[in-house]
Amino acid sequence: MKVAKRQVMSALAGLLTTAVALSGCAATVGGHAVSIYDDPFQVAGLPTTNGPSGPRPGVPDTTLTAVGADHGDMDRLALDALDDIQSFWQGEFHRDFSTGAFTPVTTFRSWDARTPQPGDGPFCQESTDQLINAAYCRLDNTIGWDRGELLPMMYDDFGPMAVVMVLAHEYGHAVQNMAHLVAGGDPVLVKEQQADCFAGVFIRHVAAGGAPHFTINTSDGLNKVLAATVAIRDADPGDAEAVHGSAFERVTAVQMGFTDGPAACKAIDMRDINRRRKNLPQSFGDDDNGETEVSKSNLVELTKAMAAVLPIPKEPTYDYHGATLHCLDGADTRPVTYCPATNTIGIDLPALARRGAPGDAGSDEFPTRIGGDYNAYIVLVSRYALAVQESAHQALAGPKPALRAACLSGVITAKLADPARSAAGSGEISLSVGDLDKAVSGLLSDGLAASDVDGRTVPSGFSRVDAFRAGVLGSRQTCESRYA
After folding, report:
1. Do 289 and 438 touch, CB atoms closer than 8 A?
2. Is 23 helix (H, G, I), strand (E, B) or coil?
3. Do 367 and 227 contact (CB within 8 A), yes or no?
4. 182 and 238 Cβ atoms separated by less than 8 Å
5. Distance (Å, rounded) from C-alpha 9 to C-alpha 388?
6. For the chain, what is the largest distance between any 2 Cα atoms, rounded to a whole number of angstroms?
7. Cα–Cα distance measured from residue 259 to residue 275, given in angstroms and rounded to the nearest whole number
8. Of 51, 90, 306, 396, which alpha carbon lies 20 to 30 A from 407's?
9. Which residue stretches of 187-333 are H helix?
């Protein structure tokens, strides 16, 4: 967040690198279909499921091989994934693309970036020593991966389906080349967003039960895949090396593929990306980072901004002494509670500040949760969104009010980035780079910003993020129509 010119911020450095020859690593909103379903317990038309996520037990490993492979767990997982991915696109390609022809990837290559082996050799004309990456090489139609550092980190932090997602992304680059969707001069960001989208197409295939080697549930299993996408985001979109997109953009691309299929992926270009970016901040500018202190004074500024963005006849009263309100028609949802009976929002300031503490930017591990101020602020915004619904005499308990709260929170969030607010003198507090990513991370990890008056949310992080994104890219009317 930005509060006038008073900022203390930190940025997470990117964890994956790419070389020049590498492609590493539905109402309409902004011209694209947004998933609208009557059943909030569905995930883009699929039922919300629990159960296993990962390799199917008892299924023989693929016969595919990789140059340099050590035949260990990571290589077997990667090759089983690529077998399913390649088989899927081989059957799907002719239905989705009118140009090009399906050509299987020529060679797979594995290396250990941590402890180079004599047989590792170069990949795509680059040394694999310390190359912590997975990539598609368009020079020779190959896919390679680091089995020593990257894949184990993804596996340990997000589970086996995160490894599958990474390789589905890389195969997405092969698909875009086969279909002649991109050329050498096209922006790398377009190529990466398309590849994220194609990964989403394949993950839906797995969720629908179509993959021989893998299965994924659409609650915590899919949540972890999206969390992995968040972790390998570009922390500063304004950086010259930022070529993948923010977490918000990457998750959007994955969800577009999951929801709307390859047609949505083909439509991704810079015009589409810029349309989805709207007025959202893309660089730090004069600021060093994106963090502000979660303090009473800053929260007061946020309450003023919310009231200006979505005014209601009777503003709630704010109690900064705690979130235990003993409400007659709602539960205490620490660190922020909304009580309809008294139209009060109670705030446990120390607990909210702990939620908004920045993450450890110096860690070598992938962040399983992005910390920071807006992870805290979005909870307050969502409780104000309940007050907005109460003012409109809408139900506050149940899955639709919960998702409507997330959606309205997205509307408020996007308006905080509107330059017209600052020009009009109402921009004391505004959105900073990375704030959307912090919100998305919170929506995936606990969903408190997508909960109803009793603190209940839907089990699918996909649906929670989908609702928030609909608000960011749409309007209050979008939220009302989706969650009527």
Report:
1. no
2. strand
3. no
4. no
5. 31
6. 72
7. 19
8. 51
9. 188-207, 220-231, 247-260, 262-266, 270-277, 296-309
Which tokens sit at 171? 């195969």
Predicted TM-score (pTM) above 0.70 = yes
Residue that is written with structure tokens 């009473």 in the block = 296
CA-to-CA dists, residue 296 to 8, 128, 392, angstroms: 16, 50, 28
**Nearest Cα residue to 116 out of 170, 164, 64, 70:** 70
The single residue listed with the structure tokens 């050498």 is 184
- Round to whole Å and give the CA distance between 78 and 85: 10
Q: Closest Cα to residue 42, out of 248, 218, 162?
A: 218
Q: What is the dihedral of CA 211, 88, 78, 120, to 10 degrees?
A: 170
Q: For the chain, how many residues are written?
A: 484
CA 55 from centroid of its chain's CA atoms: 23
